[in-house]
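Re: the request from the purification team.
They wanted to know what the chain is likely to look like in 3D before they choose a buffer screen. I agreed to run a prediction and write the result into the notebook, where they can find it.
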Amino acid sequence: MARLFERAAVIGVGLIGGSFAAAARRRGLVGEVVGVGRSEANLATARERDLVDRATSELDEIGEVDLVLLAVPVRSNAAIVERLAPGLRPGTVVTDAGSTKKSVVADVESRLPEHCPFVGAHPIAGSEQAGAAAAREDLFEDSVCVLTPGERSDRAAVDRIADLWRGLGARVVEMSPAAHDRALAWTSHLGHVVSYALARAVAEADSEDELMQLVGPGLRDLTRLAGGSTPMWRDIFLANREEVLSSIDDLGGALRDLRQAIDAGDAAALDQLLAAGLAARRKIGGGG
């Protein structure tokens, strides 16, 4: 694929930003990448692993770019864009990689100059690992990247960002920011809520020491998501507050159904509930 951008700034060279930088450079989609971050140790890792061409902890040292990727906790975007905006040249495309979109689109579009289009994006890829050390050039292969165009997303900019993510191996889907946030509350955010809550509940059990001797792969699988970046997930839960709360309430209803059947000793009701869960698992793609 032909080069899409000459010079990009990746703000946040972690798992997503670092993987993006490495893949975009090595596939020739971006000519040069400047990585920006707060941690000197993480930036040193990014340089050592050749994820970026240059790394800096200062936004003022980015220079002229034609693409900016915001790959930071979502509630950090507003302050970063305010600092970047005066130095952005006309036509610079700004995009992001955040797991929430309504608040991000509103925060960024209201702070960008009129001559810079913003294209909200969410690559649905990654793991509980974080930092430049976890970055992988193939992270986005066979993934989905959701684009959420807003009022400041002209068609040409949306198409360039779509081509960029396709070039990284992702399948591109477009939807509104609101539809994205509703869907992700269920497919991603709620799972992290459950994982954090379960891990804490087990750790706070009266017989914690005894329990820890009996931990098996089931509990490890269920609590794996609690190993993620806590600042990132704090911001996601707060940025998508209404949809996350709604999904928690609905999950509470499903848990109450199970509790009532168990409490009543109702084997038939349990059979129905478990069968429904199994059928849903197969539909999601988990096999039997």
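For the purification team: Strands lie at 5-11, 30-36, 54-56, 67-70, 93-96, 118-124, 144-149, 171-174.
Please add any questions underneath this entry.
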